[in-house]
Write a structure and sequence with these properties.
The complex is a heterodimer of chains A (about 120) and B (about 110). Chain A is an all-beta fold and about 120 residues long. In chain A, about 0% of the residues lie in helices and about 50% in strands.
Chain lengths: ~120, ~110
């Protein structure tokens, strides 16, 4: 596609429910990133994929968070047993090659998650 | 570890005013430095970048110079427009951090007509 797409654009859920957020990167981009942006905060790194593997999961805040990437393309971020503090905008980005010097990331519009 | 500090917002300016958004960083080695911009309702997009000391990144009338001696990458524009209203993020990536991109907290800019 022309850019990074994410779905849904907005998600409202009840505390304790599981949610899945989807990211479709730019075709041919091998690197994919998930970030979280809480109100008034900067971007918090969650996880980095190179192809289908995740060499850096250091930003996942708890074991309720997991992500996978299949076919070197689409990625899904899953949050189990959601909590109110999970409410944020979840951003996905992709880049052409692996994480490296001067690399430019291309961001999707984000999924705004609200946990009631 | 690597970190980025940028001035808190919001910054409110009148059209045609001069803009400076300060950004300083801490990093080992020689990181690449970036400014990303997030317009209302849109995703982040790269505004400009510089990959070595004394380089100047520029785009859409915005400029930032990589200053190794002051570990800074301040964003400037000589004459802002209403359409520049957005949130601006300073970022870095460097070998010392495994090239993980570290973002500042963002600075919201409002430009009044």
């Amino acid at each position: 596609g022309a850019g990074v797409s994410q779905s849904p654009s907005n998600k409202v859920t009840e505390k304790g429910k599981d949610v899945e957020l989807r990211c479709d990167p730019i075709s041919g981009h091998t690197a994919l990133y998930w970030y979280r942006q809480s109100l008034g905060q900067g971007l918090e790194f969650l996880i980095y994929f190179q192809g289908n593997s995740a060499p850096d999961k250091s930003g996942l805040p708890s074991d309720r968070f997991s992500a996978e990437r299949t076919g070197g393309s689409v990625s899904t971020l899953t949050i189990q047993r959601t909590q109110q503090e999970d409410s944020a905008v979840y951003l996905c980005a992709s880049s052409l090659v692996r994480r490296g010097p001067g690399e430019t990331q291309y961001f999707g519009p984000g999924t705004r998650l609200l946990v009631l | 570890g690597n970190s980025v500090t940028q001035m808190e917002g919001p910054v409110t300016l009148s059209e045609e005013a001069f803009l400076t958004i300060n950004c300083t960083y801490t990093a080992t080695g020689y990181p690449s430095l970036f400014w990303y911009v997030q317009y209302p309702g849109e995703g982040l997009q790269l505004l400009l970048k510089a990959t070595k000391a004394d380089d100047k990144g520029s785009n859409k009338g915005f400029e930032a110079t990589y200053r190794k001696e002051t570990t800074s990458f301040h964003l400037e524009k000589g004459s802002v427009q209403v359409s520049d209203s957005a949130v601006y993020f300073c970022a870095l990536s460097g070998r010392g951090g495994g090239f993980k991109t570290i973002f500042g907290a963002g600075t919201r800019l409002f430009v009044k007509a």
